[in-house]
Amino acid sequence: MDQFVSPKKIYHGEGSLTKLEDILKDLKATKIFIITDPMLKSLGVIDPVLEILERQNALVELGENVVPEPPVKIGNQVVNEVRKIQPDLVIGIGGGSALDLAKAAAVLAGNDGRVEDYLNLSSTKKLLNKGLPKVLIPSTAGTGAEVTDIAVFSLENTKDVITHEYLLADYAIVDPTLTYTLPPKVTAASGIDALTHAIEAYTSVNASPLTESLALDAMKRIVENIRTAVWNGNDKHAREQMALGSLIAGLSFYNAGVAGVHALAYPLGGLFKLSHGESNAILLSYVYDQVWMACIDKMKNVAKAFSLPINEKSDREIAQQVVRSLQDLIKDVGLPTTLRAYNIQSKDIENLTKNGVKQKRLLNRSPKTLDENSIKQIYTNAYEGVLQNS
Asked: How far apart are CA 133 and CA 168, in angstroms?
C-alpha cells in the first residue's frame, strides 16, 4: 500500500499570490509574522505580499533573520522571535532557507525546547503540538520546500533536519512572478536542485506509481526550460514551467524521498558552506555514475523525459548517456562539475566521506547501497572530474 501526502491547499500559476486574501479570511488572521530574506525586501520582491496584507488591515511583523544554509543558532533566534510576537499566522517567503525557518518556527512556537532538541540525528524530544498555521511562498524554482515537512539546518561539519508532519504547510502559493528577477546563478542552482529531486524521487526505493509519474513530468519540464530560464530570464513561459516543475518535483520527492545525491551534498554545505543547489549539481552525475546499474530499467524513461535518442541503443548505453547528459546540462547552465572548482582539496575527501556515511535516512533510499568505499569513490571522482562507469 502506498500513501501520498501534500499540503492542505496548493495554489500555483501567475497571479496565484492574490489567493492570500482568501487565506487570511479563512484563518481569520490579523497578526502576521513574515520570515524572509532581507535581500528580497530590498529588491521589492515581497512588496506584492505586503500590499495584500495592508489591504486586509493586518498587523505585520517582519523577520529578516534569514541566511543561506541556516545554522541551528539562527533557527533558535527566529523561533524566539515568533514566540515573543505570538502571531496568528506565519508566512515564509523566499528560497529553501526562509521556508525551512518559517516551518520550524511556526511549529516550535507551540512546543517546548530548541531546534537542536528535535534534529533527526540527535533529537531527544518529540513535537506534541502543531503550532501556528503557515503559508509558504517560494521565490525560487528549485527547493520544493513549500510542499515538504522538512527543515534543514547546518551543523559544524554537515547538516541535519527536523522532519514531522506538523511542518507541512497549511497553504502553499507558487507564483512564478516572484522568480522573474532571479539572477542566472540562482536560477541554475535552484533548477538543478529541482531536477535532482525529480530524479532521486523517481529512482528511490520508496517510489510509487504516483510519485514516478510526477517525477517524470517534472524532469521533462525542467530539462526543456532550464537553459532558457537561466540565460533568458525574461522568458515568462520558461519561468512558469520551472516553477511548476519544481512544485511537481517537490510533491514527488516529499513522498518518495531523495537519496545519495542529497546525502553527500549535506557535508559539502556543512563543511564548505556551498549552497544546496551547487552541492547537488556537483554530485548529481557522479552519484548516478555509481548507481545506474541498480535502476537501469528506469533510466530508459529518464532518457525519454530528457528527449535523448534511444533507438538502437542497449539499456546500458542509454543509462550511460543519461549520466553524461546530466553533466552536460550542469555545464550548460554555468555551474561547476568538480569539487576543485570550489577549492576543495583531495585531503578533504576523508572528512567528507566520514560525514556522508552518517546520512542513513537518505542513503537508505538509494537504488544501490552506498557504503563507505562507494561514498569515498564518488567524492574522489567528483574531485577529479571522472565518470568512471559512463
From this structure: 10
d(CA 7, CA 251): 9
| DSSP per residue, 17-38 | GGGHHHHHHHHT--EEEEEE-H
Nearest to 188 by CA among 240, 248, 233, 138: 233
Q: Other CB atoms closer than 10 Å to residue 358's CB: what's the count?
A: 16
Backbone angles phi and psi of 182, in degrees to 5: -65, 135
Residue with cell string 487570511: 24
Neighbouring C-beta atoms of residue 181, cutoff 10 Å = 14
Q: In the prediction, which pLDDT does 234 show?
A: 95
Where residue 261 falls (left for φ over 0; alpha for ψ -120 to 50; beta otherwise) is alpha
Do the beta carbons of residue 77 and residue 65 sit within 8 Å?
yes
- What is 125-188 written as a DSSP string? -------S-EEEEESSSS--GGG-SEEEEE-SSSEEEEE-GGGS-SEEEE-GGGGTT--HHHHH
pLDDT tens column, 249-278: 999 999 999 999 999 999 998 889 899 999
DSSP 8-state symbol, 59: E
Question: Please, which residues bridge with residue 163 across strands?
Answer: 150
Question: Percent of the chain having pLDDT more than 70?
Answer: 100
- Convert the pLDDT of each residue in 281-333 to its tens digit: 999 999 999 999 999 999 999 999 999 999 999 999 999 999 999 999 999 99
